[in-house]
Structures are given as structure tokens and as C-alpha cells.
Design a protein that fits this description.
The radius of gyration is 20 Å and the shape is elongated. It has helices at residues 10-26, 28-35, 38-57, 64-69, 79-91, 96-113, 125-131, 139-149. Helices cover 67% and strands 0% of the residues. It has 150 residues and is mainly alpha-helical. It is built from 8 helices and no strands. The chain has a single domain (11-149), classed as DNA polymerase, domain 1, CATH 1.10.150.
Length: 150
């Protein structure tokens, strides 16, 4: 009987699993930042600063540093804000490539602020699903807009 393996009860396993889930979820934000390169961090800070300029035009005060470091700074973010940012960026004359990359950054941070297991539960699942429907600008769509504005 000395070779008998003692296994934890299913209750012990559930408790350990819940603790592990909380730990994993609470570290999603930090783990992502540890995995990106310095150049990616710089680009994202520029992307976030542009988004902050858009928010500022609507008298919403956020800084790129807050959005980069604090998931709670994303509370209240909606589909409409990101869609509005795309429109605002077009009006500012940003290139299609720049707009699309910046939108990708914003969507990534919304995922990180979204529901677990990929996020930290600042944004709920329905809000994130709507945010993910905000699309960048495809070449043909951009050409059509330019033609219509002439």
C-alpha cells in the first residue's frame, strides 16, 4: 500500500482551479505587456495618444499612459466610440494604413479589458462583441469615399 497515490478530492481540484483562474485573469494585462517589444510599445503609445486626441475632442479625458497601463481606463468604451474614431481619423487625413493599425491596437486593448479568459472583465461580453464588429477601411471603400468627397 505504500505505492498508493493520494489524489486531491474534486472539491480540492475545483478550489485550486478557481484560484488559478483568478490568478491567470488578473495577469492577462501584465503578461501581454511583457510579451510585446519596445517598438510595439512605442507604436501603441502613439496609437493610444491619437485615440486620446479624439476622446479629448468629445471632452473625455484620458491619457495614452492611462489606456496603456490601466484596464479600468477602458471602462465605458463602446462600439460607437471606436466607429467614431475611424470617421474622425479619416477627417484628420490619416492614411488608411495608419487608421487600420490604430484600430487594431484599440481592439486589442478592448479584448484585454474585456471578459475573461482573454481579458480582465472591465468590458462585458456584449460590448466587446459589438466593438469587434468595427472594421478598418478597405482599399475599395476608401477609394469610393475619396471619389464621393470630390
Amino acid at each position: 500500500m505504500s505505492d498508493m497515490i493520494i489524489r486531491p478530492s474534486s472539491g480540492d481540484m475545483q478550489a485550486a482551479g478557481q484560484v488559478a483562474n483568478v490568478y491567470a485573469q488578473s495577469n492577462v494585462w501584465d503578461i501581454y505587456h511583457q510579451e510585446i517589444t519596445e517598438n510595439t510599445r512605442k507604436r501603441q503609445m502613439n496609437d493610444l495618444a491619437s485615440y486620446c486626441a479624439y476622446l479629448d475632442a468629445m471632452t473625455i479625458k484620458r491619457t495614452a499612459d492611462e489606456l496603456f497601463n490601466d484596464p479600468v481606463a477602458w471602462a465605458g468604451t463602446t462600439y460607437g466610440l471606436l466607429a467614431g474614431y475611424v470617421e474622425w481619423s479619416m477627417q484628420q487625413g490619416y492614411s488608411i494604413g495608419t487608421i487600420n493599425v490604430r484600430l487594431a491596437t484599440l481592439r486589442k486593448y478592448c479584448i484585454l479589458a474585456g471578459p475573461s479568459p482573454d481579458g480582465v472583465d472591465v468590458l462585458d461580453r456584449d460590448t466587446l462583441l459589438l466593438i469587434q464588429t468595427v472594421k478598418g477601411i478597405a482599399g475599395k471603400k476608401a477609394r469610393n469615399r475619396i471619389e464621393n468627397e470630390r
